[in-house]
Structure formats: structure tokens, C-alpha cells
Amino acid sequence: MLGLDTNVLVRYLVRDDPLQFERARRLIKRKSDGGEPVLVSLLVLLETEWALRSRYELSKAEILSALSALLDAVDLAFEDETSIERPLFLEALRCRLRGLPR
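Below the sequence we write its predicted C-alpha cells.
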């Protein structure tokens, strides 16, 4: 099993450095094509959210969208996925009720 580092996951999401994005993409693809699970831990996910919010200044809606897309990715496995899905769903619902973009 491969556990992704925060830096790899951030590069995979933001694509601000084409070379680093391609390396991250190939790593995930190579491991998942080989049948090896690619794990995203809760700590890495929290650090990723922090980096997207503070360093890349993404909006709450953009972060929700990025994390939701990660959960839909078949190449990735998540530590305690249910504990990730529920707060994302609730936050998306709150945004919708407030009329904020999703």
C-alpha cells in the first residue's frame, strides 16, 4: 500500500507545476494499475485542505469540489471515508442553504 504525502496530493489537485503534476499522476496510476491501494490518510486530507485554503487561497466551494472529486476517484482509498463524506455533505448543504456557490 502506498500512502500519499500531502505535497503529492496538493500537486495532483492544483496542477500549478506541470512536471510535479505529471509525476503525481503517474505515481498514482502506476500503483493503482498494479493493484496496490493508494491511501489518503485523514492527516494528509486535513493538511491538503489547509494548503488549498491558505497557500492557494481557494474558496470553500472550490475546496469542497476538489475533495468531493477525490472521494469519487477510483484510484484512491481513504482512511475512514465515512468520516470524510459526512462533513463534506453537510458543508455543501450549508452552502446551498446560504445561496453560496457549490
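The beta strands are 2-3, 38-40, 77-78.
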